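Our consortium's second objective concerns turning raw sequence data into structural hypotheses that experimental partners can test. To show how far this objective has progressed, the report includes one record in full. It was chosen at random from the queue rather than selected for favorable results. The single chain below, 267 residues long, was entered without modification.
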Amino acid sequence: MTAAYEPAALTDRARRWRWSDHLHLSSRFAELGDRMCEAAAVRPGERVVDVSAGVGNVALAAARRFASVTAVDDVPDLLDLLSARAEAEALVVDTRTASPQLLPFPDASFDAGIIACGRVFNVGYEAAFTELRRIVRSGGRCVLLLWTHSGVVRRLFEAIQSYLPGSTGLAIPTLPDAEAEVRRILSPCADLQIRTRDFPVVVPSPQVWARMFSVCYGLEAALTRASRETEIAGLRDDLTAVFHDFSADHGDSAVITYEYVQVVATR
C-alpha cells in the first residue's frame, strides 16, 4: 500500500529550480529519451512511467511511440514545462507530482518504468529503484540511466559542492560501483542487462558550455542570492576545466563525452 505523498517534502530541489532554466539545458540531452525508450522496447499502447521526469525527454519520446505515458516529478514547475512541450507536439502525457521514493500507484501498474538522470536529485536512490520495480508488472521492463563514477558528471558536482556545499540539495549523482549496487537492489528481477555507453554533446567550446551550465543550472543565481557574486568567475573557470578534461577539440567546436551506465531489468 502506498502512503499519500506529502507536498511539504518539496524542499531544496523545488526551490533551486525556481531560478534555473532547466528546459534550455535539458533539451541538449533530448536524444537520451529516445535511447531509454529503445532500451525499454516501448511499444504502442503500453503503459509507461517516467520517474523524476523533469521536463520530459523520456516521457515525450515514449508518447511519440504511441505509449500511454505517465510522468512523475516532485517539482510541479517542471511538469508544467513538460505539459507545454507535449501540447506543442499534440502528445498526451499524464503528469503526477510525487516523490520518486513514494510513488502513488498500485503494484504492477505499468509495462515499463524508466528513471533517466533523475537519481541525480534523489539521495534515496535505493527506495526509488525499489518503488520502480514494485509498480512495473511481472515481465515488464525497468530501465535506469546512471552517470558513471569516473565520468564528467561526478567531477562537475564535486566542483559545485566546493562553492555551494549542501545548498544545491544534491547528492553526488554516481555510485562507486554502479553495477554491484544495481544488481543488489534489482536482484529479484528475472533478467538484468548492464552496459556502459557514451553520450556526446557538441558545444562551441568548454568555456561556453561551462557558462551555459552555470547559468541554466541556477548556480550563479544561488551565489548571487548569497551575496557571493565575486565567486562566479572562479566557478566558471573550474567548470570549464572539468569540461575540458572530457572534451575533444574539433576546430570550431568541441565534443564533451558524458559516460553513463544503462540498466535494463526484466521483472
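The partners drew two points from this record. The first helix runs from residue 12 to 17. The first strand starts at residue 47 and ends at 51. Both points have been shared with the crystallography group to help prioritize constructs.
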